[in-house]
Amino acid sequence: MRYVITYDIADDRRREDVATLLSGYGPRVQLSVFECDLRTRREAGALQAKLREIIDPVEDQVRVYPLDDRAARHVTVIGARTIEERQDFWIIT
Questions:
Q1: Is 25 helix (H, G, I), strand (E, B) or coil?
Q2: Helices (DSSP H) in the chain: which residue ranges?
Q3: In terms of pLDDT, which residue wins out, 36 or 87?
Q4: What pLDDT is stored for residue 69 in this prediction?
Q5: How many other C-beta atoms are found inside a 10 Å radius of the C-beta of residue 34?
Q6: How far is CA 16 from CA 5, 21, 37, 80, in A?
């Protein structure tokens, strides 16, 4: 099943940790939005548990929206902007 996962994280470090975790489950489609394909409810539950470990429940919020197959097939994207993942790099002179 596909899940749309959105987040609003107050701390830069926690935000990066959440983004890194979610990037292992699916593509980033907006700055704070990932589309994750999770095979089982157990996998979805494990991901949610990991997210709970990372965030501060007072300052942060993560929303998980399940999309059944029908809803996932009817997603409409308006516009062509893509999100480029930041790449760390070194400049050596």
A1: coil
A2: 12-23, 41-54, 69-73
A3: 36
A4: 86
A5: 21
A6: 15, 9, 20, 25
pLDDT at 93: 63
* The token pair that represents 41 in the structure block: 């409810």
Q: What's the CA gap between 87 and 24, in Å, rounded?
A: 16
Return the closest-CA partner of residue 4 out of 68, 50, 55: 68
Tell me the two tokens of residue 14: 């926690």
Dihedral pair phi/psi, residue 38, rounded to 5°: -115, 130
Nearest-angstrom CA–CA distance, 57 and 10: 11
Terminal-to-terminal C-alpha distance of the chain: 48
Task: Evaluate if pTM is beyond 0.70.
Answer: yes
Query: Is the pLDDT reported for residue 44 higher than 90?
Result: yes
3 state DSSP class of 42: helix
Q: How many residues does the chain have?
A: 93
Measured from the Cβ of residue 89, the count of other Cβ atoms closer than 10 Å reads: 6
Tokens standing for 2? 């596909």
